Amino acid sequence: MIIGALPFSFVTALMLVSIVKAVVFDLIRMHHGVASTLDAIDP
User: Fold this and answer.
1) Cβ proximity of 36 and 29 under 8 Å
2) With a threshold of 0.70, does the pTM exceed it?
3) pLDDT digits over 3-20, tens only?
4) Distance between CA 39 and CA 30 in Å, rounded?
5) 34: left (phi over 0), alpha (psi -120 to 50) or beta
6) Residue 14 exposed, middle or buried by CB count within 10 Å (0-12, 13-18, 19+)
7) Distance CA 13, CA 7 (A)
8) How far does CA 21 lie from the centroid of its chain?
9) Cα(34)–Cα(2) distance, rounded to whole angstroms?
10) Cα(6)–Cα(13) distance, rounded to whole angstroms?
11) Do the beta carbons of residue 36 and residue 30 sit within 8 Å?
């Protein structure tokens, strides 16, 4: 049962890494003043 859950845990860990990476890059872009995609949507 534990062996069956390992692939799911690995995929979940990869998703967590990608979310953290996206947040970090977004904070870096905001710090440098680069417009994000949400800035273009606001009227």
Assistant:
1) yes
2) no
3) 888 889 899 999 999 999
4) 11
5) beta
6) exposed
7) 10
8) 5
9) 45
10) 10
11) yes
Query: DSSP 3-state assignment of 33?
Result: coil
Got the DSSP string for 1-43? Answer: -HHHHHHHHHHHHHHHHHHHHHHHHHHHHHHHT---HHHHH--
The answer on pLDDT for 36 being more than 70 is no
Quick one: pLDDT at residue 40?
57
If we measure between CA atoms, which residue out of 14, 15, 35, 13 comes closest to residue 26?
35
Compute, in degrees rounded to 10, the torsion defined by CA atoms 21, 25, 31, 36.
-130
